[in-house]
Amino acid sequence: MAIHTDINLSTNDKRILNALFDPETLPSSVAKSKDASTIDSNLAPHPNIAAAQISALETQQDAFIKRISSNSETSEIEEVIREMDTVIEEHPTYPSAHLNRAMLHRMLLESQLPPSTTSPSSSNIFTLPPSTLEPLFTSLSRAIHLSLSPSSPTASVSTYQARILRTAFSHRAYLYLKAAEGGTELRGKGKGELEELASSDFANAARYGDEIAREMSVRTNPYAKMCGAIVKNALREEMRQGHGQGI
What we know:
With about 250 residues, the protein is mostly helical.
């Protein structure tokens, strides 16, 4: 990921700046996200639900989701959410239902927004009462909890669990990021804290195979951005002084 600046930097200076934002060069959990040992294709889809049951439930979930589109009425979304709630009551440890319910809750909230008369950022779900957002975050957190290995949060997971984890972490990271960009305080956390949460969730999504999230984790990392700004300012000041001395 190239860094663009408005000053002429040497090749070495550009290398330093790029390293601050390049996930390939970071000695962090983000840089280790390509470790295939995190996902074990030999594991059963879910530790507590039989593979045949998972397959049947996934088919049912697909049918639910196909009934909804971006043009669906609020009543249609609410109906599918009620059916999803029934599935969760019958299969409380089935993570896909929690993940899909989160998506449906977000669509429901978006369907209730008034048309934006200025910019898209002036009309988003974070302008709604905080209590209306809780089901969305609760469902995502539940999907994550149910998909992590019960033995250890860092233990290997199945390909099915990895899919749920990278999707749920990415969705939640996106929400944190949108709240931060809009200057919204969420659960008592301001812009900086929300950016940290977004970066952490993107890193977790990357750990389970989402390479776009891997790059987003670096872009949203407030410490990397701060270091980049410090280095750029120092280089700019050094060059200004150099030009002032006729160098």
